[in-house]
Design goal:
2 domains; Rossmann fold; 14 helices; 4-stranded parallel β-sheet; 6-stranded parallel β-sheet; alpha/beta
């Protein structure tokens, strides 16, 4: 993120004790419980130490941390500084009436579906609480009380800011008092290239964006199948590999153009549909551009986003092992059946309203004022 931070004009400070690179974000996501232990819980003390040291280095009025950095919450709490968890996806905290972010289930409507969602919530809670002793040891080391449940960490935060649209999300039975929807946060990464349409302007046929996730998830084989499927359809497409794949590792038919990166807003203004793993940014950007989408989720929040895409009628979902024939059939449906585009435009308009009304800055100013007041009286 250094280039992004430098471009925004802020001081960049590297983690000193906490892991970085693949150690902080391993590509193997096959075992949720093991991944959570290695990525979220075991580095807790290291993240907390870095946060506490930085708060001690410069006067700090508030901490804004991505929600997976539980250690950042410990460092802020131990320092007496207000904390906001930022969820750049649907809620990681389990919410009543909503399937957990890891399940890929839809909004429950029948007793059977509610039972299935309850079981999925219990499974996620068990997976998280399997590492609760690690979290509590770190809390004791930092002079903090132990927690009976990992989810209590979210309740101790001053704010949990959901950077998604309420129109896109499922409806919870209730929300904790510290939860706020602030709308999606969308920007163009500085590694994406200038966009110049690679297809002939006069050719009148559908066009697609094939967008690979920016995270490393061993997804090369999946996208080769997608590219091969698109090669069998009368459309043009551009494939953006992102920072973790190399275009030289792919073979492409004549109707698919391979690129390292491109500004997706510009590309989406020139295409008919989007094919992706279902990352929150890509899904949301597709919607505000009124584009139907095919989602092939692999991990992280992609299953949750795919479930919402399917439930809202704005696209189709396939598993990451889908065949070329299945992928081609789904793309043909999105091209020929107009209801997907109609639904995408409607939901996209609602998301734009949420973006325009975002309360992120206001919420952080309130927390900053609270933290400043605490420092003034300490």
């Amino acid at each position: 993120m250094r280039a992004e931070v430098d471009a925004a004009g802020f001081e960049f400070i590297s983690w000193r004790n906490a892991p970085i690179g693949e150690a902080a974000d391993p590509a193997d996501v096959s075992n949720l419980r093991d991944r959570m232990r290695r990525v979220v819980f075991e580095p807790c003390s290291a993240y907390a130490t870095d946060i506490r040291d930085e708060i001690g280095r410069l006067p700090t009025d508030a901490v804004l941390s991505v929600d997976f950095l539980f250690g950042a919450a410990l460092g802020a709490e131990a320092s007496g500084v207000p904390l906001a968890f930022l969820s750049p996806h649907v809620s990681l905290r389990i919410l009543p009436g909503i399937p957990p972010a890891t399940s890929g289930l839809g909004q429950p409507k029948t007793p059977e579906e509610r039972a299935e969602v309850a079981a999925a919530c219990a499974a996620l809670n068990d997976a998280m609480n399997a590492s609760l002793p690690i979290l509590n040891r770190a809390r004791v080391d930092f002079g903090l009380p132990v927690l009976p449940d990992v989810m209590d960490l979210f309740d101790r935060a001053d704010r949990v800011l959901l950077a998604t649209s309420r129109a896109f999300d499922f409806e919870a039975s209730s929300l904790p008092d510290n939860f706020r929807y602030i709308g999606p946060l969308l920007d163009v990464p500085n590694w994406s290239n200038f966009w110049q349409a690679p297809w002939p302007a006069q050719r009148d046929r559908p066009r697609a964006l094939i967008a690979c996730s920016t995270g490393a998830q061993n997804q090369r084989d999946l996208f080769q199948r997608v590219i091969d499927a698109v090669g069998k359809i009368e459309i043009d497409a551009v494939f953006t590999a992102g920072p973790n794949l190399d275009v030289v590792d792919f073979r492409a038919p004549q109707n698919v153009n391979l690129m390292h990166g491109a500004p997706h807003n510009s590309v989406m203004a020139d295409v008919s549909l989007v094919i992706s793993q279902g990352g929150h940014g890509t899904v949301t950007r597709s919607l505000i551009n009124g584009l139907p989408q095919l989602v092939l989720p692999m991990a992280r929040d992609q299953l949750a986003n795919a479930a919402r895409v399917e439930a809202k009628g704005v696209g189709l979902r396939l598993g990451p092992t889908a065949s070329e024939q299945e992928i081609a059939a789904a793309i043909n449906r999105l091209i020929t059946e107009p209801q997907f585009k109609v639904a995408a435009r409607k939901l996209g308009d609602a998301i734009r309203v949420d973006i325009d009304a975002s309360g992120l800055v206001n919420e952080m100013e309130l927390l900053g004022a609270l933290g400043h007041q605490r420092r003034s009286h300490s």
